[in-house]
Amino acid sequence: MTSFVPPDASAPKADAEAEDAVETRARQEADDPHSPVARFGPSQPLRLDAGVLLPHLQIGYQTYGELNAARTNAVLVCHALTGDQHAANLNPVTGKPGWWETLVGPGKPIDTERFHVICANVLGGCMGTTGPSSTNPATGRPYGLDMPLVTIRDMVNAQAMLLDHLGIDKLLCVAGGSMGGMQVLQWAASYPERVFSALPIATAARHSAQNIAFHEVGRQAVMADPDWRGGRYLAEGVMPYRGLAVARMAAHITYMSDQALHRKFGRRLQDRATPTFGFDADFQVESYLRHQGEAFVQRFDANSYLYVTRAMDYFDLAADYDGVLAHAFKGSKTRFCLVSFTSDWLFPTEDSRTIVHALNASGANVSFAEIESDKGHDAFLLEEPELFAIAHGFLDSAARAFGLPPARGR
Amino acid sequence: MALREPVLDEGAVRTEGGRVDLVVVAEMVKPGSRVLDVGAGDGELLELLATTRGCDARGIELSREGVNAGVARGLAIIQGDADVDLAHYPDDAFDYVILSQTLQATRRPRWVLEQMLRIGRRAIVSFPNFGHWRSRLDLLVNGRMPVTDNMPFAWYETPNIHFCTIRDFVALAEELDAKMEKAVALNSAGHRVRVDMPWWVWNLMGEQAVFRLTRKA
């Protein structure tokens, strides 16, 4: 695929070529990722919440650390909206570190010298798990909008198939932030007997009206781009770059706090002493957002963005349990640890507290910590020593209760 | 102030560096039971109950620092406000609900105690006794709000907004129709006040009190 136009025609040629290379790699990842892949044929179809069967399913996943002989040290890490399976290795598309290397790795809270960590690209994603940019085996062309809509529960059911495939019956822990945290909650509700402990971070048991509204802005931006071509852009050799970049820019604002934006950029101007009295990126914050948008469109599929945001919008765990969230965790033996951040206005502390109250009502074993941070929703991905200490303490205590030997002293 | 403590004790309580009342509280808990500690701090009592008595011990704590330190030590503590969050627990969820040195800091002590007796089959409450002779003397002689080791804050910055005496607490327990199963008063040396002493002696000599209550029938 070399026919994609670069997002910014004014960019120097070398940059444009590098961007092309990223896009080419990104397209390849959809069907043939740089990671192990589990494939399931029509004999094991995935029944989707949309009411249809997905006869062909592939799941791109990564693992870190050794699985012990008793298969009791498996930790499933669930990624957020635009994450992927490359939690703790160099990303094959961007060449950047894994998205959760702050928390996952040797000697880290999710210690790959002690635990066998699994991370899978979500259903509907674009990094090797079946999604709208995958080739539909029935037609030989990308699914595009022929891909059925998927839900958080569908993602979790697909992950459960992966674990069956890997021969892992019970997880020591399922951990994730944001949409990853939604999957953690769904795991605990759908497969309580397979989840010994759960670590949902900066998340909610249902997507709020405000969050649905932000997602809708993003989707409308994508669909308003003439190059979206009714979702058939891959077949027509174009990409809705501008729409997807705008979607990312809008979303990126919601991941940060006002304080963080102010600390990082303030009202400072970008490479100029005075405003230009035009619509160029005068302010650093504008330049930053444009860069975020451009970097994103090279690695992420626009239709995937529609599907995965939709999955989050549809998430309302209580709705599946007579509207009572506590019923989702009735009789649960799972140990929970919830974490929120003070400046996260996308998934505010109240969302976590609602889950804690439901868990208390159901008698579950639960810890809950709110961490003081000015980094907004993104804090769960960043350097937050208190998060590390809490995750370490919770996981270590769960591991010992699950019968794992104590961590080796370091 | 050269007044000496009258000797009325039944023997010192083991302290081992921890808070004296926590040991007394822990001794009132049957091993292996389910316990909720309201106002758990950084989990000192939870750890004591889990390690020495094999309890399934969980806590609520208001301060972020306390919660985060406790959770980092692997304890099940939630950040929350007793004045609000107790409402979310179902009836009889725990064998014991403990409130150690926290009653006087709640906004609604009566409601909190009612909730404790609803959530737990037994409630254990420890609190500083405002009726202790030294508090009374402070007010009588100096005309100032007492500041002691147990009540170390000046009136204008204390989190302790609902002080009570041992007799006040006993009256509240009676009002809530709770049965007093056990009671211990500790003098300022951390020694137990003898059980055969009348209430007025407890109320005068006890610097701290620990009560175990249960619902009547």
Automatic annotation (TrEMBL), chain A:
<dbReference type="GO" id="GO:0004414">
    <property type="term" value="F:homoserine O-acetyltransferase activity"/>
</dbReference>
<protein>
    <recommendedName>
        <fullName>Homoserine O-acetyltransferase</fullName>
        <ecNumber>2.3.1.31</ecNumber>
    </recommendedName>
</protein>
<feature type="binding site">
    <location>
        <position position="378"/>
    </location>
    <ligand>
        <name>substrate</name>
    </ligand>
</feature>
<feature type="active site">
    <location>
        <position position="344"/>
    </location>
</feature>
<comment type="pathway">
    <text>Amino-acid biosynthesis; L-methionine biosynthesis via de novo pathway; O-acetyl-L-homoserine from L-homoserine: step 1/1.</text>
</comment>
<comment type="subunit">
    <text>Homodimer.</text>
</comment>
<feature type="active site" description="Nucleophile">
    <location>
        <position position="178"/>
    </location>
</feature>
<keyword id="KW-0012">Acyltransferase</keyword>
<feature type="active site">
    <location>
        <position position="377"/>
    </location>
</feature>
<dbReference type="InterPro" id="IPR008220">
    <property type="entry name" value="HAT_MetX-like"/>
</dbReference>
<dbReference type="InterPro" id="IPR000073">
    <property type="entry name" value="AB_hydrolase_1"/>
</dbReference>
<keyword id="KW-0486">Methionine biosynthesis</keyword>
<feature type="binding site">
    <location>
        <position position="248"/>
    </location>
    <ligand>
        <name>substrate</name>
    </ligand>
</feature>
<comment type="similarity">
    <text>Belongs to the AB hydrolase superfamily. MetX family.</text>
</comment>
<feature type="compositionally biased region" description="Basic and acidic residues">
    <location>
        <begin position="22"/>
        <end position="34"/>
    </location>
</feature>
<feature type="region of interest" description="Disordered">
    <location>
        <begin position="1"/>
        <end position="42"/>
    </location>
</feature>
<keyword id="KW-0028">Amino-acid biosynthesis</keyword>
<feature type="domain" description="AB hydrolase-1">
    <location>
        <begin position="73"/>
        <end position="383"/>
    </location>
</feature>
<keyword id="KW-0963">Cytoplasm</keyword>
<dbReference type="InterPro" id="IPR029058">
    <property type="entry name" value="AB_hydrolase_fold"/>
</dbReference>
<keyword id="KW-0808">Transferase</keyword>
<comment type="function">
    <text>Transfers an acetyl group from acetyl-CoA to L-homoserine, forming acetyl-L-homoserine.</text>
</comment>
UniProtKB/TrEMBL annotation, chain B:
<dbReference type="InterPro" id="IPR029063">
    <property type="entry name" value="SAM-dependent_MTases_sf"/>
</dbReference>
<dbReference type="Pfam" id="PF07021">
    <property type="entry name" value="MetW"/>
</dbReference>
<protein>
    <submittedName>
        <fullName>Methionine biosynthesis protein MetW</fullName>
    </submittedName>
</protein>
<dbReference type="InterPro" id="IPR010743">
    <property type="entry name" value="Methionine_synth_MetW"/>
</dbReference>
